[in-house]
Automatic annotation (TrEMBL):
GO terms for cellular component: plasma membrane. Mg(2+) 1 binds at A22. This is Ferrous iron transport protein B. It comes from Paenimyroides ummariense. Belongs to the TRAFAC class TrmE-Era-EngA-EngB-Septin-like GTPase superfamily. FeoB GTPase (TC 9.A.8) family. Keywords: Cell membrane, GTP-binding, Ion transport, Iron, Iron transport, Magnesium, Membrane, Metal-binding, Nucleotide-binding, Transmembrane, Transmembrane helix, Transport. Signal peptide: none annotated.
Length: 699
């Protein structure tokens, strides 16, 4: 079967992804370009009985002169003939309402010599907006095939497929005269490269891209050598001349009669981007997102957690005893549970974000927040990950994909784990209950609740300040300019919403899941194995205590588990690193609990219950744990959990990277172990220093 390669390209917010989804449906997948974080979307569609199309959906760009590293990498897909997705035909998606701006990119792509189709999306909105287009006249002026489509209503999609099938019939000649920019210069380029595409020659001269096999037939003269400043002036002149060319064409082929328009976009914009009410509305939208992630995901997360706990118990009880059963029951199955438990949160978050984007509201929210976030090296779009991080950093980091600027996207991913997530709450509750008295501020504000609230504020401030620091350290390839589209308001296409949600869930499971699972198995091994002379003799070592204290079976099992954890490899590591944590006020038990809670912050409480031999159910009984911790003494008789130690622990958990799953997602999203380790070292360093200062000052 014949297979064509088709590239979809267009400005942001023209409905290009909707067109891609209408063409491919579920026959698509998402991945990264090799070695970089830019997403590439590919899919297939049937054009005829003997022909299929392999479609690549390129990220939104404004022109072939890229303004970011991401745009440059994406555009190489249509410039680099050696890449496997190099297209046979290009479909430029434009929007009927913003046709003039969209045609700049179209004329540039057309001049590269590709068979090019212009797909005018949102054709169903033309009458509503008072727009009329003389399609035959526009086709003739642009020397291209034009298809009117509505991805929302799936109108014109079959016509677009037919147009792609007939791509060999289309003229590939340039439509814009480069000599109108500078006749002498471009005449000289034509003389030097008579057998090459003129626009490719020009883009090579500007340094945008280096095309293969571009060598002059005669020796280059000094007249063709231009300074960087001169080339920029020519690029600016090119843009001006192209818009003049576009204006001349649209003058007779494109009309907007505002008297017939029934659009209420401006009325909505006046409210949603208002300097006061806009922020109030956005605040309630964030509350809805946060509340949905926190509340709606609770039941399915508990269900998944319980399901894998039961599966682990069943495996342990029914399979033959041995290391393989232990690996499955205590390593692989809990690791899989740790991966899949976060799926409900990821699905809900991206479902809601997709709705905001589909309706056009997200662009307004970004416009509002960019002014606030920019001084901290972040984007207006960073506010969604930062707020979502209060539920869980994993879907929050993934949502940073929506930030186009690579520097701002990277900083957002690196600082989002500072925001207080739900996994920290059990730790905070235990420590605050232990060191903060049950008193009231001003007679009615509970002091413990106030401290808990301040932990949330502290996390958000840490994220902002860290963003500011990283913005000074991380250098951008080029200066970032805030350019954002204000798309038309529209009802969300549920197919697009669910496809986007599905992509993100699959991407998390396949990409981050394997990293999380591997690290979970490693931590399991370190925690459930140790030197045979101590770890393997746990029952004998606690037998004397059983005789003296007459322990119940549950107490005996807990005593053995605590002994084994203490003498496991992770326990040995914990005792070894105790001198490192001692200046923070931690004994060896706290050190082990901190170290093992790297798997997930919330297991800190359960690990302490095991170390203090409180039984398997003690993690659910806050009173027993608090009482035991309050009575814990050092060798010299002083209390372990003083006010200074408690504040030190709160600060350490507020700032430290104590989550295995977050590490996996950071590696997946940055596509770099370098930035993953930098994040871990940076956060751990901040946590250690602040906890150290707090303890030393308060002890």
């Amino acid at each position: 079967m014949k297979q064509l390669k088709v590239a979809l390209i267009g400005n942001p917010n023209v409905g290009k992804t909707s067109v891609f989804n209408a063409l491919t449906g579920l026959n698509q997948h998402v991945g990264n370009y090799p070695g970089v974080t830019v997403e590439r979307k590919v899919g297939t569609t049937t054009l005829a009985n003997d022909t299929k199309a392999h479609i690549i959906d390129l990220p939104g760009v404004y022109s072939v002169n890229p303004s970011s590293k991401d745009e440059e990498i994406a555009l190489k897909a249509i410039f680099d003939a050696s890449n496997k997705d190099f297209p046979d035909v290009i479909v430029v998606v434009a929007e009927v309402e913003n046709l003039k701006r969209n045609l700049l990119l179209f004329t540039q792509v057309k001049d590269l010599g590709f068979p090019t189709i212009l797909a005018l999306n949102m054709a169903d909105q033309m009458e509503k907006k008072g727009i009329s287009i003389d399609v035959p006249a526009l086709e003739k002026a642009l020397d291209t095939k034009i298809v009117l489509i509505s991805a929302r209503k799936k109108e014109g999609i079959n016509d677009l497929k037919q147009a792609v099938l007939n791509y060999t019939k289309y003229n590939t000649n340039s439509i814009f005269d480069l000599k109108s920019i500078d006749e002498n210069y471009f005449t000289l380029l034509g003389h030097l490269y008579p057998n090459e595409n003129p626009y490719k020659v020009w883009l090579t001269q500007t340094g945008v891209f280096q095309f293969e096999k571009l060598s002059p037939v005669v020796s280059s003269s000094s007249a063709v050598q231009k300074s960087e400043n001169e080339l920029k002036k020519l690029q600016q002149r090119e843009t001006i001349k192209r818009y003049q060319f576009i204006n001349e064409i649209l003058k007779d082929t494109y009309r907007i009669d505002t008297s017939k328009a029934t659009d209420i976009r401006m009325k909505f914009d006046r409210i949603l981007t208002h300097k006061f009410w806009g922020y109030i509305i956005f605040f309630f939208v964030l509350l809805l997102i946060y509340g949905s992630i926190f509340e709606l995901a609770a039941f399915p997360m508990d269900f998944v957690d319980g399901l894998f706990a039961d599966l682990s118990a069943w495996t342990s009880a029914n399979l033959p005893e041995g290391k393989l059963t232990e690996l499955l029951a205590d390593g692989v199955i809990p690791g899989l549970g740790g991966v899949l438990m976060f799926v409900p949160q990821i699905a809900i978050l991206f479902f809601l974000i997709s709705i905001l984007e589909e309706t056009g509201y997200m662009s307004r929210a970004v416009f509002l927040m960019d002014r606030i976030m920019k001084p901290f090296g972040l984007s207006g779009k960073s506010v969604v990950p930062l707020v979502s991080g209060t539920a869980c950093a994993i879907p929050a980091i993934m949502s940073a994909r929506n930030i186009e600027n690579p520097k701002e996207r990277l900083i957002t991913m690196l600082v989002t784990p500072f925001t207080t997530c739900s996994a920290r709450i059990p730790v905070y509750i235990i420590i605050i209950s232990l060191i903060i008295p049950k008193t009231y501020i001003l007679g009615f504000v509970p002091l413990q609740a106030f401290v808990m609230t301040m932990m949330y504020v502290l996390g958000f401030l840490a994220a902002l300040l860290s963003g500011w620091v990283l913005s000074k350290i991380i250098k951008a390839d080029r200066k970032s300019f805030f350019v954002i589209e204000m798309p038309t308001y529209k009802a969300p296409i549920l197919k697009n919403v669910f496809l986007n949600m599905y992509e993100k869930v699959v991407s998390y499971i396949v990409g981050a899941g394997k990293i999380i699972l591997a690290l979970s198995v490693i931590l399991w091994f370190l925690g459930s194995h140790g030197p045979s002379d101590t770890f393997g003799n746990a029952e004998e070592m606690v037998a004397e205590k059983q005789m003296n204290e007459r322990l119940t079976e549950e107490e005996l099992a807990s005593e053995i588990a605590g002994y084994q954890l203490e003498h496991s490899y992770i326990g040995i590591i914990g005792r070894t690193i105790e001198p490192v944590f001692r200046p923070l006020g931690y004994d060896w038990k706290i050190s082990i609990a901190v170290l093992t809670s790297f798997a997930a912050r919330e297991v800190f409480v359960g690990n302490l219950a095991t170390l203090y031999n409180l039984g398997e159910d003690a993690a659910e009984d806050e009173t027993r744990i608090i009482d035991r911790m309050a009575n814990e003494k050092r060798a010299d008789g002083t209390s372990v959990y003083t006010f200074a130690t408690g504040i030190s622990l709160l600060l350490f958990y507020a700032f430290a990277m104590q989550c295995l799953s977050t590490v996996g997602v950071t590696k997946k999203e940055t596509n770099s172990w370098k930035w993953t380790f930098i994040q871990m070292i940076f956060m751990t360093g901040v946590a250690y220093v602040t906890a150290l200062i707090a303890y030393q000052l308060l002890k």
